[in-house]
Fold each of these.
Amino acid sequence: MKKELLSIAAIFSVAFLFAQPGLYFNISGGYGWSAPQQNLQVLTFQPSGTDPANSVIVPLINQNISDSASLKFQANKYQGYATGGNINAVVGYMITNYIGVEMGFGGLIGKKLNGKSVYDDPTVLGNNASIVTNTWSYGVTLSPGIRIHACKPGAKVVPFGRFALTLPVWGKTIHELDITSSNFLLTKMPASAKIRTETESVASIGFNGSIGVGYNITKWLRVYGEVLGNYLFVRIGENSLKRYDLTFNGETSDMLPTFSKYSSTTEFVDKLDENSNTTIYGKKRKLMAQPGDKVVDEDKPRQVLRSAANFSAFGFNVGLTFTINNTAWKKKKNKQFVPVHQ
């Protein structure tokens, strides 16, 4: 799907480059904030034992619910993956003085979001265990759309609006966990772990729009600003464990090679049943299975039901537009060369 979208973008761009004059090119940058919401958009992982496959997905909040806390508390953090900077490039063609078509290329550089959880784990981490999570996203989208100008030809001030699809073609969401324990495996010895996972998406679609105003500095160059909104839920595809360093008794070990594919990789699917690679419907892990038990395939990813990450946002952009209007191009093309005789 991603290759097909990139091919469409390439054809679209080449068609613009070799079309008749009337082209415009935009470059811009700005910042966005996650759209107001009443649900917790950002998630993290809470270990349950030493096998990553047993981890529980929970909302990213701040909390201290340990019995040793002077004041127990839980506090929501209404953060979103779409918060952060963005850079954009657009190539387009004005069909008339008022309506144009364009292809946009956008890049998200997500802000690092964080949360801290302190709690008591009676089996592995012991009392007063701490998990600090940092997570962020980055990616590239395509935005085929239309543009409308609300001014007379030749006006200095150019109010405009635009509407486009949002097609994510590449990107990742990173989770980094820093876990500390003062009583690891009830040995009364400290331990810590540094974990990193990367999540990739599958084909998703949304839409975006903006209104703004530009000012023509010259007939070729315009400066503009716009406010924008984006509605997008990205469907999760696969999560992979990329780092698992465990420090215990002063020694750090890379635990990643010790995990099976089932433990290190999670595949998100739209349907689960008894044939899925999961323990939900009675299958056992190989080490825990008894004769006659159905077992999961340790050489394949663990399967869980798919969810979607909310990337809806609002923000602003400022940038420059380089224009080649029909009239100027034709005058230049039709200009005759007059030889000079001495």
Note: The longest helix spans residues 2-17.
Amino acid sequence: MIIDFFATLLSNSIWTPSPLLMPILLVLGALFIAAVALLIISYYEDYYWNDVEYRRDLRWHPARRKENI
């Protein structure tokens, strides 16, 4: 299998992927994007919206830290 792969790379023939490769890559890419979106949403839900002290610490200007959130 590996020898055939390298033989194909070194020859002048065109490598054609299996028909199942693109759907698998699309599904894996969609799962990766969904996982990143879930991480971002859970961060904002857990650490930003529910924690008033954390949001107050994120404010860089001292005058705005005293305001009610």
Note: The CA atoms of residues 4 and 10 lie 10 Å apart.
